[in-house]
Design goal:
The longest helix has 22 residues. The termini are far apart. The protein has six helices and five strands. The chain is of the alpha/beta class and 198 residues long.
Length: 198
């Protein structure tokens, strides 16, 4: 069962990202502030939740969160500043967009870049421990998946509506056949044999 808070006295925001290891598209991040008594029986790490349940959870989280925000950093900026910094920047943007200023940030993972003067705690596997991080993981994942489905319409041969830009066998084969497009992360070590598509 997920824990409702790290510190009962502080206003906490859970933060998580989606798309860090993808070959294409942006990285998304979400920040979520929940009430101490927030509960949904199916809330969990987004990777452990079926897509149809994630969509239901997104609606529930957005309707019941004290505050939430989602932000993205596109593939061009990822190439400029690297994926780790882009992930941190996306989280910073999400926190900045909250309508309340949290007193503590709960970060999924083992590293984070200090955001203003707000204290943070990094928790490895935090999206399976704290409700606010799990909620952030659901929002980041569902927003990014929807975005990749939109990008699929422009470059359908990569099958992003299914693989969401990750390096699946079908995505790798499409890269070999068609090369990279403008949404691929050029700084990633992606093997291709054809010129870029624009």
């Amino acid at each position: 069962m997920l824990q409702s808070f790290y510190d009962e006295k502080l206003l906490e925001a859970g933060c998580d990202e989606a798309g860090r290891g993808s070959f294409a598209g942006p990285v998304f991040a979400a920040s979520v502030i929940l009430s101490k008594d927030f509960y949904h029986p199916q809330l969990n790490d987004s990777k452990q939740v079926p897509p149809e349940v994630r969509k239901e959870l997104r609606i529930f989280i957005e309707a019941n969160a004290v505050s939430f925000a989602v932000a993205m950093i596109d593939n061009d900026e990822i190439d400029e500043i690297n994926i780790l910094r882009a992930s941190f920047k996306a989280m910073h943007k999400a926190v900045d967009a909250l309508n309340l200023i949290p007193e503590l940030l709960l970060i999924d993972g083992n590293r984070f870049a200090l955001y203003k003067n707000i204290h943070h705690r990094c928790i490895i596997g935090g999206d399976a421990v704290y409700a606010s991080i799990a909620a952030a993981s659901i929002l980041a994942k569902t927003y990014r998946d929807a975005y990749m489905v939109q990008l699929h319409e422009e470059f359908q041969h990569y099958k992003w509506e299914k693989n969401k830009g990750y390096g699946t066998p079908e995505h790798r084969e499409a890269i070999k056949e068609f090369g990279l497009c403008k949404y691929h992360r050029k700084s990633f070590d992606i093997i291709f044999t054809q010129p870029e598509l624009f």
